[in-house]
Design a protein that fits this description.
Bound molecules: iron/sulfur cluster
Number of domains: 2
CATH superfamily of the largest domain: LarA, N-terminal domain
Shape: globular
Distance between the termini: 43 Å
Helix content: 25-40%
Structural class: alpha/beta
Largest sheet: 8 strands, mixed
Number of helices: 16
Order of helices and strands: EHHEHEHHEEEHEEHHHEEHHHHEHEEHEH
Length: about 375
């Protein structure tokens, strides 16, 4: 059995000096020979959409700045890139998230992972397209955000790999793998195809998100910065510190098992051994995955229609059209009044629209059955 190490640092703010110290200490501890040999680094933050850093949707630019400085000091060529979700313009994302500013101040290349080509690979009976940028860098640094997730319960280093899939191909995969379990299996296939090339992983949990993440939840100060070369160990530690149990997050057990990692053997700093889990608001993302995951696939689909929460477009809608373009099954259409409307019969409850709406105008409503059983 492996005994992976997860580094954790308590950081109360995005102080560049403190982050540089943490980044240097964490990376040096992983002793991966690629860090010396390879010349080009891909830093892969979470750039989900065009949100400013204080919304806690995307990786904070000062975290990325600390990593950029580490690798520039080491004489590396540095690329920073992601493929944002849905139809959002990558230039708008770079501008709003602070990464354009970073690229003006440092000799780095911002890369749009949606437009650089891809390699198509097979794993576990699934075919996945992964951005060419990923394969062109000998060092890959995965820099996730610490958040809840409406489909996967938790998003950390593992889910952040999904940004390696170019552009709207992501939406098509949501159509093909619509529920929590099948989508989790797809992500596990992606993880298996990429994990040996991912050199190190960070999670920016200084300002994270609870509630209806990954974009419409509540920004929440957790004051934690995590790092590990093991995605499985890192996400297990980070998710349980947020308050999740192993069973709440559908991919955790399979990847810990695949890595041969026993949770009790994961090494963390002594000062965090008795750290209480946060009293984070997890109900809206956690409970939905609980009951359905034990049902067989054919039953799950029918039950999901009755039981699952569904997206509802609210009065804050600004008619930007992002949801209409992002829905993988074209379940959102323009109405005569100029507003979009969700066709519930077509909707596969993937929550992409909820995730992508830049104005947080799409709410998650629990189903009638849910309200009857649980009362909210
Ligand atoms: S619901 Fe959100 S994404 Fe859809 S049109 Fe309205 S503001 Fe845009
Ligand atoms: S309406 Fe929203 S939740 Fe339903 S399928 Fe489209 S993107 Fe997914």
């Amino acid at each position: 059995m492996k005994k992976p190490r997860v580094q954790i640092r308590k950081l109360n703010s995005y102080d560049l000096d403190e982050l540089q110290d943490a980044v240097g200490t964490f990376i040096k501890s992983c002793r991966n020979p690629k860090l010396q040999k390879s010349k080009r680094v891909l830093i892969k933050p979470n750039m989900l959409g065009a949100y400013p850093p204080e919304k806690a949707v995307t990786t904070h630019p000062v975290v990325v700045e600390a990593i950029v400085r580490y690798f520039l000091d080491a004489g590396k060529e540095v690329w920073v890139g992601d493929s944002p979700g849905g139809s959002v313009s990558v230039e708008d994302v770079w501008e709003a998230t602070g990464f354009s500013d970073l690229a003006k101040r440092y000799p780095i290349k911002l890369q749009n992972l949606s437009t650089m080509g891809f390699r198509e690979l097979k794993m576990d009976g699934k075919t996945l397209r992964i951005s060419e940028a990923f394969w062109r860098c000998g060092i890959v640094i995965n820099v996730a955000k610490y958040k809840t997730h409406s489909l996967m319960a938790f998003t950390g280093a593992f889910k952040n790999l999904y940004g390696l899939v170019p552009g709207l191909i992501k939406s098509d995969y949501h159509r093909q793998y619509p529920d929590t379990h099948s989508f989790s299996d797809l992500l596990i296939a992606l993880w298996k195809l990429t994990k040996n090339r991912v050199t190190y992983n960070f999670i920016d949990g200084i300002l994270g998100m609870d509630g209806a993440g990954p974009s419409a939840g509540n920004p929440r100060h957790f004051g934690l910065f995590f790092g590990s070369s093991s995605i499985a160990a890192l996400d297990y530690v980070a998710a349980t510190m947020m308050g999740f149990k192993l069973k709440d997050v559908p991919y955790l057990s399979p990847i810990l098992h695949a890595e041969g990692v026993l949770p009790s053997r994961i090494s963390i700093p002594n000062s965090f051994r008795d750290h209480p889990s946060f009293d984070a608001e997890l109900g809206v993302v956690k409970l939905r995955t609980d009951l359905v995951k034990y049902l067989p696939q054919p039953v799950r689909r029918g039950f999901k229609k009755l039981y699952y929460a569904r997206p509802v477009i609210g009065t804050d809608c600004k008619r930007c059209g992002v949801c209409v373009k992002s829905c993988p099954v074209k379940a959102i259409n323009w109405q005569d009044d100029g507003f979009p409307l969700i066709d519930n019969a077509k909707c596969i409850k993937c929550m992409c629209c909820h995730e992508m709406c830049p104005y947080h105008a799409i709410d998650i409503k629990n189903s009638f059955l849910w309200r009857m059983v649980f009362g909210s």
